[in-house]
Description:
The chain contains 13 helices and 19 strands. The longest helix has 24 residues, at 40-63.
Amino acid sequence: MTNYLTNSELDFESLSIEAIAIAPVSINKAIQISRQIKNPERQWQTYLTVLALFAFRQWAEERAPEFYINQEKCSILHPEYANIIEAACNLKLGDFKICLLAIGSFTDEKISIPRAAIDLPEFTAHFYVVVEIAEELEEARIIGFIRYDQLIEQFSSVNLLAENDWTYRLPWAWFNSNSDDLLLYLRYLQPDAIALPATPVRPINPLLIMQAQLSPVLPQLQSGNREIWELLTWEKITEIMVSPPLLTWLYQESIRPNQESKLTQGILNVWLWLQDEIDDLARELSWVLLPAFNSEKLGLAGATAMRSPIEELEAIVTQLERRGTAISPAARGACKTLNLASIPLRLYALSWPMLSTENIPEWKLLLILGGSPSGTPLPEGTKMQVSDNMSVLVEQAIDQYTTEPYLYSLVAGTWDEQFTVTLTLSNGAILTLPPFAFRPH
């Protein structure tokens, strides 16, 4: 039979809250771990939460040595999770899941809990434990806890809504301040007495599509000046948090130093091309502005013959026009020679302004991906993906049925829209270019 204790059955004298000494080695380790987080505010919270983990572990080893502590999957020790979730989720004490919430001082009337720790089954816990860190005293105290079932009951009674920063603000009155009660639960309660939600089978979105969707926000994440909740929706971040490969990729990209992330910094302003100019970023990334072209003079000459970039572009444009793709005579383009995983590629980008049927200023972007300048065709499995800030718009691939030796995509948008291109090879090599934008001002 399952033992299940209620608050009324825990009738014993509360003991004073005991201080837990924080060793210098724990402080140094917390500093090292927190340095893996770029955002200064999250770095500080990570530091406090790591100290809370060390303090709780010491408390458990002294007060409940019969329980094995498993911190292998504890989120705060994995920077990709600590970068998003300001708590120590998935800590195991025996068969119980623990979520630690660290605070710097016991002064606020409410305690913040990450929304992920409650709303996502992957991060829920049997007990949510609040640890106060007195850094200047090198001490910590367990000052409150709440069971998951009690937490959900409180939620349903007040219809509590999440804050904009993906946290819930909970009244201190909800928490039990006696850590000895927590010990009693751990010793005499069976884990299944506190039913946690089952992890659902979630749809798996292709990693490359998700990466393309997130690429436009990378420069702002890399700057360290914007919180991720300011840039993404809760629905989007949920997809990220339940996909470890995507979460790891996002973290690695967010900490990439500026000088190593030129391909995801800034925008390529194609409006300048129409003025016979090219911006500093495009020049730094070796884009070459092409002269105005004549799509009629080359006829249907093969696109893979050895020729200059403007000659190859004119030949391809001629083919596209004869198949019904309308390209403005005022269009201007640029090209870039790439070497992706030792595979030579040549990318053309062509743009021009237009008016929509409602007379709204718009622009078009034509992208053409070809093989090497010497005529080597694109290898099978090569993909070109074009996305805006919300979704993938076009994806083209070279397969056994492809008749042309190049890929092309044509997209259109208003002047405030921008488009991101991701190139992928069959061996998994991937390159995301900075967004193309049309910025007259």
